[in-house]
Design goal:
The chain has two helices and 24 strands. By secondary structure, the chain is mainly β. The strands form six sheets. Strands 10, 11, 14, 15 and 16 form a five-stranded antiparallel beta sheet that branches. Strands 4-3-6-7 form a four-stranded antiparallel beta sheet, with no helix packed on it.
Length: 331
């Protein structure tokens, strides 16, 4: 017969074992440490495999969301087509036993696109009634000496619609030729490049804005400002920002010092903290087209001067303090 003390100890040990087991099952039913990972730079026209991983028992079931579409599995293979410069990926891990779910989101920034539209030669400035060649430049072709045996296809688009060739517009391999530019030829041009031997998918190029007027640029804002006062500066351009040009700021005399500064696209909001001279330089450019314009503005920051009422108060305080010290020394 089992001793009553031993029996009690056995029950206690059994209870502890059950508690530990239940705790382990409870911990295993959760989803921990979910993350999205990938290797190398994401490039238009080439496959990239993304992996979603987490810690859960039993193994989790994974679901992806990309550009409004849903995919299943722990990995997702995607071929960018050049339309996006950034993309958002979302992965959800579900424990099939308990239904516990954990979701994470990653943003792929600066998707590389080696296809662009350029004038040929690159220094050409479009002019009405003059001929023009637009070239579908592809970085993938740089190291291929002979293109004659290469199978490729190029389709041209203007303002999102396929270009209709006519007696004034002709296509020769990678080039779109205009015999004589007319006003209706102005617009946003892209080429779609397909190289099945070198890439896994078609790629839409970075765009080129064909216009006849030279770009203008100016910085709007005050010439003289005061410390601890909010000032706003805006870069105004004749090109359409984020369509046919991008805008960036340069600070050639050093970054503005202050209690607050916000740089958003073509606007700067600044609260300077000390008197100085500050240079603001705004650049509008289209790298693919080789076009840019620049404007610089010098701003003087003045300190807040003491008022006429405040000055005597300070002087009187210093004078009283000096007289007090003299009296103490002579006592």
């Amino acid at each position: 017969m089992m001793d009553m003390g031993k029996k009690s100890n056995w029950k206690t040990l059994h209870t502890v074992f059950l508690v530990v087991l239940m705790g382990a099952q409870s911990q295993g039913s959760r989803v921990h440490g979910i993350q999205i990972s990938w290797r190398d730079k994401v490039t238009a026209g080439f496959k990239t495999t993304f992996t979603c991983s987490s810690t859960c028992v039993p193994k989790c079931v994974y679901t992806w969301t990309l550009k409004g579409r849903t995919f299943n599995g722990s990995t997702l293979t995607w071929i960018p087509d050049g339309h996006e410069r950034t993309v958002e990926l979302q992965c959800s891990a579900v424990n099939p036993q308990t239904g516990a779910t954990l979701t994470t989101t990653s943003v792929v920034l600066d998707i590389k696109n080696g296809v662009s539209v350029q004038t040929s030669p690159p220094t050409t400035i479009p002019s009405l009634n003059k001929s023009l060649d637009l070239f579908c430049h592809d970085d993938t072709l740089k190291n291929i000496p002979d293109l004659s045996s290469l199978v490729y296809e190029v389709v041209w688009y203007k303002d999102g619609q396929q270009v209709i060739l006519d007696k004034n517009k002709h296509q020769n391999n990678l080039t779109l030729h205009f015999d004589s530019l007319v006003p209706s030829d102005a617009g946003f041009y892209q080429c779609e490049s397909y190289l099945p031997a070198l890439r896994q998918g078609k790629v839409f190029s970075r765009g080129y804005q064909l216009s006849y007027d030279p770009w203008s640029i100016t910085i709007m804002g005050p010439d003289v400002i005061s410390t601890d006062k909010t000032a706003k500066f805006t870069c105004l351009t004749s090109c359409t920002i984020n369509v046919d040009c991008i805008v960036r700021w340069q600070f050639r005399s050093g970054f503005p010092m202050g209690t607050f500064i916000s740089v958003r696209a073509n606007e700067i909001t600044w609260i300077p903290s000390r008197p100085c001279f500050q240079n603001f330089t705004c650049v509008a450019e289209n790298v693919a087209a080789g076009r840019f314009v620049m404007a610089t503005k010098m701003v003087q920051v003045e300190g807040v001067a003491l008022s006429g009422v405040e000055v005597p108060k300070v002087t009187g305080f210093v004078l009283s303090l000096s007289l007090g010290l003299m009296l103490l020394l002579t006592m």
